[in-house]
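Section 5: illustrative case.
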C-alpha cells in the first residue's frame, strides 16, 4: 500500500506484432500473462483501439502503431479529510502515544503527544507543547501505524484537523474523543488522497471497449466507514485479538451485539454491584462486576466495603451526596478496597456504553504513604493494566495526567497539592478524590481541604481509622467535606448537636440534659451511618494471630520525683502557667521528665533563646540530669528488663515508638551499649528510603536487626512492621489517634506471631493525665461514630489538675473508675485473708529497698502550691462519690481491660498468695505474657499496676 504504483510488464511467448488485440485468447498457449500480485491495488483494464477497422491478420499495420501509456484513475478526495497533498509532500496531524526506546518484553507508553507531518518531516510534541524531536517522513499514516521520531517509539491514535492543531486545542484540553474501538475522527491521507477503503470504490471494467477511448463510469460509494487500526478490524479477517501473556476474564461481545457486562455476574464468587433504580430513557442497564482478578483476594468485610463505597459514590444510598467515609481501623485493608473501587469505576458503567463512570482519580495522602500507595497499585493491578502517575518530585509533568490518556490515577501529597491545584483544574477534570488519613482535613481553615474543594469534584472518599480525634467540630468538618451541606452550617450543627451531646456527657449533667443529648447523639449517628462505614480490628480475629495490649503504670523514681517537684516549686512556674505558649512548654517539659530527666539537658540548649525556660531549668540540680536513664527513669528500667529478656530468651523483634527524636536518641544509645542492632525511621529519614528500611527490617532476623526505632509522627501511619511481634509505646500523645495508629504497625496482614503491645506511663504524672484525656476522647468517638453508649470519662476538675505529681499508693486511673476488682483481674477473685478496707490502710508509697543507686540527693518535696494541695484533697474526697456515680458502666473503654495489681507478683507477698496457689496462677493466666510476668517478679521493677486487654 505504501509503495508507488508500477504498471505490470506483460510477457508473451509470441511476438507482439502477432497478437490480435481484438481477440481474447482461448487458451494459455496463445497468450500467457502473469497473475496480479497478491493484495495489489485493483487496476482499470483499458484497451487501445485503432482508428481503422480491426485487421483480420496479425500483421495489420495498426498493431505497429505507437501505444498510449496506461492511465491511473484517481480516487475522489474526501470532503472532510484533515490531511492535504501539498507541493512539499504529505501534510497531516495526529494524536499519538509515545515512549522511549526500550527492549523490555512488556512495554508501556510514557505519555500522549501530537504528531505533525509536513514538508517531508514528522515532528513530535508532548501534550504540553514541548518539542521532542523530528525525523524525515513522507508516508501515509493510519490509526495503529507506528514509527520512530527523535528516538521515541510512536503509535498513531487518531487524526486531528489542521485548524485544531493551529488553534492549540490538543495542548489545551482533550478535544479529540478517542473511542474504545480505536476509530478515528478524520481519515488520514495516502499521498495526498483519502484512504477510502477498497470496499467503497469498485471501478467498472467492460470486457470490450472502443480503442483510443477510456470510459469512466461514476464511482459508487457505500456508507462511509471510518478507518480503523489493525486490532479494531481483526474480526474481519476471522480472528479475535487477545492480550498476550495476561489472563483476562473480560467477556467477548455477543454475536448479535447488544448490552453485555464486562465480567460474568453468574461466575462463582462474583462480586456484583447494586443496579441503579433510575437511568436515562432509551439506555440499557448492565451488571457492574468487580474484576475477578481483584475480587478473588477480597475478604468478606472488604467485599462489603467495596459495595458500600460504590453505592455511596453512585448516589444509591439514602443521603444527599456522593461522598463516603471509610472509617475502618488500621489493618483492615482500606487501600485494597479503594483500588478495587477505582478499577471498577474506570472500566465499567451500569449504563451500557464504551466508557466507565470515571476517567481520572486523584489520591491525596501524606508524603510518607506515596510509595506505599504506588506499591499497592503495582501489587494488585501491575503496570500493564493501569497508568499511575506519582507526583513526588518536580520533574513530573502534571499535563500528562490532566490532558493525556496514559495515566488514569495520580498520587500526590497534601503539601504538594496546595501548589498545583490550579494546574489540576485546567484539564478535563478530576472525577474522584480519595483523601487518605483524612483526619488531616479536620478544620475549616485547612489549606489541603480547601484545595480539594476547589477541584469541584462531587465524588469524595475519606479514609481514616480515627474519623473523630478530639471533638465534634472536627467530625463536622469531615462530614461536610464528604457531603457538603448535609449537616447544614456549623453554627446550626453546634447548637443542635455538639452542645447538647457534649453537655450530656458531663458527670454533673441533669436528667433532662442527658435525655436531650442522648437523643441528639442517636440522631447524629443514624444520619451519618448512611455514608460512614466503621469496622474494628475484631473482624481480623480469624485471619491474624491474637493481640494483647498492656498499659503499664510505672511508679516514678526518686530522681524523677525530685526533678518534677523542683519544676513545680520554682518561682518562674507561677508566672509561666498563665501564658498559653509557656503552658505548652511546661507540659512538654513534664512529659520529658516522665521519659527520662536527662532529656532536659538537650532542652536546656534549645531554651537558650527563652529566658523563662532557661531560668526554670537552672533550678534543677545538674546531678539529677546527669543520671543514667536506666537509673533515673522508671520506664527505662522496665524497658531495659524487657529488651534483655527478649534478646536472650526469644528470637522475637521489637518496635520502639516515641514522639520525640531525643528519646529515640537515648533509646538507640542504650541498644548500642547492649550490642543489639537496630534500624531507625524519623522525620529526617528521606521519603525514598523509608520503605526500604521497613522491608529490610521485615526480612532480616533478630540477630541482624533486633529493634526498629520509630517516630510516631513521621512513621506512625501506613507502615507494616510485621517483622516484629512486640511494640513499646514509650510515651503518649494528646491525640489518641497518633498512638492507635502507631500501635497498629505490627498487627497487620502477614503477621505470624502473637502480638504484644506495651504502653508505658509514669504513674501520677503528666503521662497518666494525658492517658485519661485520651480515654475521654475515645469514648466520645465511640458514642457518635460507632453508636456505642459511653458516658463521660472524668469530670473537668479531675482532668484540669494536670500540674501535680500524685504519689499516693495504688493507681489513680483505677481509683477514678470506681472498679471494685481489687486489682486481681476480675471481680470474682479475692485475696485470701484480705479485707475490703485493706486498700485504705496501705502505707505511703516508698522506693524499693534495694534502690541504693538512686539515693535522695535532696529532701522530698511536697506538692508545689496550696492550690494544688486543696485540689488533691478535693479529688481524694470525691473518690467515693466517683465510685457511686459511675461504676463500671461509666467507662466502657477501660472496663474492657483486666486490672491487675503488680504487687501480687512481688516476693514479699509470697506468704499471702504463694506462687503455686490457684488464685495466683489464675492471675498469671489473665496476664498471659511470660516476659512481663518475669519482669514483674523482679524486686527492682517499677510497675505498680497493669491494664491488660486480649484481642
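Designed sequence:
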Amino acid at each position: 500500500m505504501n509503495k508507488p504504483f508500477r504498471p505490470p510488464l506483460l510477457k508473451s511467448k509470441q511476438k507482439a506484432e502477432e497478437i490480435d488485440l481484438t481477440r481474447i485468447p482461448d487458451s494459455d498457449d496463445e497468450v500467457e500473462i502473469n497473475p496480479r500480485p497478491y493484495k495489489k491495488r485493483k487496476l482499470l483494464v483499458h484497451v487501445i483501439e485503432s482508428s481503422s477497422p480491426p485487421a483480420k491478420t496479425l500483421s495489420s499495420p495498426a498493431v505497429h502503431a505507437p501505444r498510449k501509456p496506461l492511465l491511473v484513475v484517481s480516487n475522489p478526495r474526501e470532503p472532510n479529510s484533515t490531511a492535504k497533498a501539498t507541493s512539499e509532500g504529505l501534510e497531516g496531524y495526529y494524536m499519538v502515544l509515545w515512549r522511549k526506546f526500550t527492549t523490555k518484553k512488556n512495554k508501556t507508553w510514557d505519555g500522549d503527544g501530537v504528531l505533525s507531518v509536513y514538508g517531508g518531516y514528522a515532528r513530535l510534541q508532548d501534550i504540553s507543547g514541548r518539542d521532542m524531536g523530528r525525523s524525515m517522513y513522507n508516508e501515509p499514516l493510519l490509526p495503529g501505524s507506528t514509527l520512530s521520531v527523535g528516538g521515541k517509539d510512536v503509535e498513531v491514535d487518531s487524526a486531528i484537523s489542521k485548524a485544531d492543531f493551529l488553534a492549540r486545542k490538543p495542548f489545551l484540553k482533550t478535544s479529540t474523543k478517542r473511542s474504545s474501538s480505536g476509530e478515528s475522527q478524520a481519515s488520514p491521507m495516502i499521498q495526498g488522497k483519502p484512504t477510502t477503503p477498497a470496499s467503497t470504490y469498485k471501478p467498472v471494467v467492460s470486457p470490450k471497449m472502443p480503442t483510443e477511448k477510456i470510459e469512466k463510469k461514476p464511482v459508487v460509494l457505500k456508507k462511509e466507514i471510518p478507518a480503523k487500526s489493525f486490532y479494531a478490524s481483526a474480526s474481519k479477517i476471522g480472528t479475535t485479538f487477545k492480550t498476550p501473556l495476561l489472563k483476562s476474564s473480560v467477556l467477548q461481545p455477543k454475536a448479535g451485539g447488544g448490552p453485555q457486562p464486562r465480567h460474568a455476574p453468574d461466575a462463582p464468587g462474583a462480586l456484583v454491584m447494586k443496579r441503579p433504580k433510575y437511568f436515562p430513557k432509551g439506555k440499557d442497564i448492565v451488571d457492574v462486576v468487580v474484576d475477578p482478578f481483584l475480587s478473588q483476594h477480597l475478604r468478606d468485610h472488604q467485599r462489603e466495603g467495596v459495595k458500600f463505597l460504590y453505592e455511596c459514590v453512585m448516589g444509591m444510598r439514602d443521603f444527599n451526596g456522593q461522598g463516603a467515609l471509610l472509617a475502618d481501623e488500621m489493618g483492615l485493608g482500606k487501600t485494597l478496597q479503594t483500588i478495587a473501587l477505582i478499577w471498577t469505576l474506570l472500566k465499567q458503567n451500569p449504563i451500557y456504553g464504551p466508557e466507565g463512570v470515571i476517567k481520572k482519580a486523584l489520591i491525596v495522602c501524606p508524603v510518607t504513604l506515596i510509595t506505599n500507595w504506588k506499591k499497592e497499585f503495582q501489587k494488585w493491578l501491575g503496570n500493564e493494566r493501569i497508568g499511575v502517575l506519582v507526583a513526588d518530585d518536580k520533574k513530573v509533568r502534571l499535563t500528562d495526567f490532566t490532558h493525556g490518556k496514559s495515566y488514569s490515577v495520580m498520587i500526590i501529597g497534601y503539601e504538594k497539592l496546595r501548589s498545583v491545584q490550579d494546574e489540576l483544574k485546567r484539564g478535563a477534570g478530576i472525577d474522584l478524590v480519595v483523601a487518605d488519613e483524612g483526619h488531616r482535613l479536620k478544620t475549616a481553615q485547612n489549606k489541603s481541604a480547601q484545595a480539594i474543594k476547589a477541584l469541584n469534584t462531587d465524588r469524595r472518599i475519606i479514609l481514616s481509622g480515627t474519623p473523630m480525634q478530639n471533638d465534634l467540630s472536627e467530625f463536622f468538618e469531615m462530614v461536610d467535606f464528604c457531603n457538603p451541606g448535609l449537616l447544614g452550617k456549623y453554627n446550626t450543627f453546634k447548637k443542635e448537636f455538639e452542645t447538647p451531646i457534649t453537655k450530656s456527657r458531663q458527670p454533673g449533667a441533669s436528667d433532662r440534659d442527658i435525655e436531650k443529648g442522648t437523643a441528639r447523639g442517636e440522631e447524629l449517628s443514624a444520619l451519618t451511618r448512611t455514608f460512614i462505614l466503621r469496622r474494628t480490628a475484631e473482624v481480623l480475629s480469624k485471619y491474624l494471630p491474637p493481640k494483647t495490649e498492656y498499659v503499664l503504670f510505672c511508679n516514678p523514681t526518686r530522681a524523677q520525683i525530685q526533678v518534677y517537684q523542683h519544676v513545680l516549686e520554682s518561682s518562674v512556674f507561677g508566672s509561666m502557667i498563665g501564658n498559653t505558649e509557656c503552658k505548652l512548654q511546661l507540659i512538654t517539659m513534664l512529659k520529658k521528665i516522665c521519659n527520662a530527666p536527662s532529656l532536659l539537658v538537650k532542652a536546656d540548649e534549645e531554651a537558650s533563646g527563652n529566658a523563662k525556660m532557661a531560668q526554670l531549668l537552672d533550678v534543677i540540680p545538674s546531678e539529677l540530669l546527669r543520671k543514667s536513664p536506666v537509673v533515673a527513669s522508671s520506664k527505662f528500667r522496665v524497658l531495659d528488663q524487657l529488651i534483655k529478656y527478649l534478646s536472650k530468651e526469644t528470637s522475637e523483634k521489637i518496635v520502639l515508638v516515641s514522639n520525640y527524636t531525643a528519646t529515640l536518641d537515648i533509646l538507640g544509645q542504650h541498644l548500642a551499649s547492649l550490642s543489639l542492632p537496630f534500624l531507625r525511621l524519623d522525620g529526617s529519614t528521606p521519603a525514598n528510603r523509608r520503605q526500604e528500611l521497613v522491608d529490610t527490617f521485615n526480612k532480616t532476623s533478630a540477630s541482624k536487626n533486633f529493634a526498629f526505632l520509630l517516630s510516631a509522627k513521621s512513621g506512625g501511619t501506613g507502615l507494616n512492621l510485621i517483622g516484629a511481634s512486640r511494640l513499646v509505646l514509650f510515651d503518649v500523645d494528646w491525640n489518641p489517634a497518633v498512638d492507635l495508629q502507631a500501635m497498629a504497625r505490627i498487627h497487620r496482614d502477614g503477621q505470624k506471631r502473637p502480638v504484644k503491645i506495651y504502653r508505658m506511663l509514669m504513674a501520677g504524672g503528666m503521662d497518666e493525665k494525658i492517658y485519661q484525656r485520651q480515654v475521654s476522647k475515645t469514648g466520645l468517638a465511640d458514642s457518635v461514630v460507632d453508636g456505642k453508649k459511653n458516658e463521660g470519662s472524668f469530670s473537668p476538675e479531675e482532668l484540669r489538675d494536670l500540674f501535680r505529681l500524685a504519689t499516693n499508693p495504688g493507681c489513680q486511673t483505677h481509683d477514678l473508675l470506681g472498679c471494685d476488682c481489687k486489682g486481681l483481674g476480675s471481680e470474682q477473685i479475692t485475696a485470701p485473708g484480705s479485707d475490703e478496707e485493706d486498700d485504705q490502710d496501705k502505707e505511703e508509697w516508698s522506693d524499693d529497698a534495694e534502690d541504693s543507686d538512686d539515693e535522695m540527693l535532696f529532701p522530698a518535696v511536697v506538692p508545689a502550691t496550696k492550690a494544688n494541695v486543696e485540689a488533691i484533697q478535693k479529688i481524694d474526697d470525691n473518690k467515693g462519690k466517683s465510685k457511686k456515680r459511675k461504676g463500671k458502666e461509666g467507662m466502657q473503654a477501660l472496663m474492657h481491660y483486666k486490672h491487675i495489681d503488680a504487687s501480687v507478683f512481688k516476693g514479699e507477698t509470697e506468704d499471702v498468695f504463694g506462687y503455686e496457689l490457684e488464685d495466683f496462677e489464675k492471675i498469671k493466666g489473665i496476664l498471659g505474657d511470660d516476659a512481663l510476668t518475669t519482669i514483674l517478679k523482679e524486686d527492682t521493677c517499677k510497675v505498680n499496676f497493669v491494664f491488660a486487654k486480649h484481642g
